[in-house]
Amino acid sequence: MNTTDTTHIRNFSIVAHIDHGKSTISDRILEFTRTVEERDMEAQLLDTMDIERERGITIKSNAVRVMYDADDGDSYQFNLIDTPGHVDFTYEVSRSLAACEGAVLVVDATQGVEAQTVSNANLAMNANLDIVPTINKIDLPSAHPEEVKLEIEDELAIPADDAVCVSGKTGAGIHDLLEAIVCLIQAPTGSSEAPLKALILDSYFDEYRGVVAMVRVFDGIIKKGDTLSLMQAGIDFLVDGVGVKQPAETPVAQLGVGEVGFVVTGLKDPEAVHVGDTLTYRDRACDAPLSGYREAKPMVYTGLFPIDNKEYENLRDALEKLHVNDPSLTWTPETSVALGFGFRVGFLGLLHMEVVKERLEREFDLNLIATSPSVDYHVFKTDGSMLAVRSPQDLPDVTRINHIEEPYLRAKVICPPEYTGAVMQLAIEHRGITTDIIHLSQRSVEMRFDIPLAELILDFFDQLKSRTKGYASLDYEFSDYRQSDLVKLDILLSGDDVDALSFIVHKDKAYGLARALCDKLKEIIPRQLFEVPIQGAIGNKIIARSTVKARRKDVLAKCYGGDISRKRKLLEKQKEGKKRMKAIGSVEVPQEAFLAILKVDE
To answer: Residue 577: what pLDDT?
Structure first.
């Protein structure tokens, strides 16, 4: 194929709500086009991480090239990008769409249009992509594809007459889907004679080859031996090799206009290559970098501390290597009296936090303690200055605070009409304000709320699923900062402040949370030989208390009667010993205590 002839190339992303079958459809496409031999085929083939397979979710976007012999007699090159479905990874979806001309929008035939379906459809429409509506899981007895077609038209304003009905499980309709991609998605445009312009979609660090960047070429050609420049970073490098994923890495002679593949940069600094940067020729640069897409902004912050402080440097190296693959990660060094040296790490959401912690422990063999998550507060001081606070320990003295602002989200919940009351009640309990209720169809209602991010990261999602029997779906985006009556709640063990257990909470909820957390910690903290009081405090005021009772040795076991004064003397001696032990004894706090705040309502 001539590199300037892009008429037989199709670049598309597969997008959908979580668990609507994107990865399964990708598997069937690989199988149908014989990209992967039958003996090598396995479920979730494009999900390369163990954690993705175990949880049955996609965390990282994956680009793969397949060749398809269409009914018109021509052979087409498909660059397929499988994307995540969870709201935490929306930035991955926007990154993938920036490299494509089309999107396959998958909707579950049993569930219909859900919150992330709407969000992904809007992302694709805003990027001016050709959309191929696809209804999956038509083999299930509860499937209602005709009703789902109406939902797609009513709720997404996308014509669904030509929606492709498929089954990712059985492979039914995959041929029709591939034909629809050929007909409905436009071919890429660009000139191979123009200066190179290529967008970096993803990158990962290889011990032997340095940073390997996944790119989409818009203009020009990339070959081994070319000297390229990273426009935003201002770094030059010699191309050590180019190739494509099929899905195994396959070297090619060059990457031309409209193609998606990888470039071996040879750069050993993981921080050098930024996702969204533009590659161009060093000696013949393009006029301006590609606009790329928005930077991923962390929403949730938590402290990560190695159990053994000797692993501090290893944790820093691991975070740097993971950052190449996951540009949304941010971190700053942090010190805790209770836990020693660690990092305050920023994540996109709670699932992202769980996944990154698990990856650090598995891939880099680290043993970590994670503290309670917090958000980015804006603290306005009495001197007129503003301080961004991501950790309760950084909060200034209350006498120096004028007011505090916290981040609010625009949340969207789609659920059946009968659960409207339960969802509204849940929103009220989490300080949410209902802004709109839209009846999308007879089977679904869209409810919109303004809700503090701090409330959403506690237990909102779990409660939403349990109160709606799993039918509700949630999507959200950042709205603005609003003034709130917030206080710092400290947890004291034996009178000592445990800084890693402190958190910022709304004043109206402080007592209930302190009471619940003290009771929870009473169950978690092991009994000592002395009594351990657990107290919740705001400033100098104690608002809740629980006590871990002391283990008691039976010092009277050897007394078989005799004078009562002898027994009293032994008990008094034991009492004095416990008092002395309490003065010098330290309480070990187990890992579960630091995440107990997330489960106080269980």
So the answer is: 64
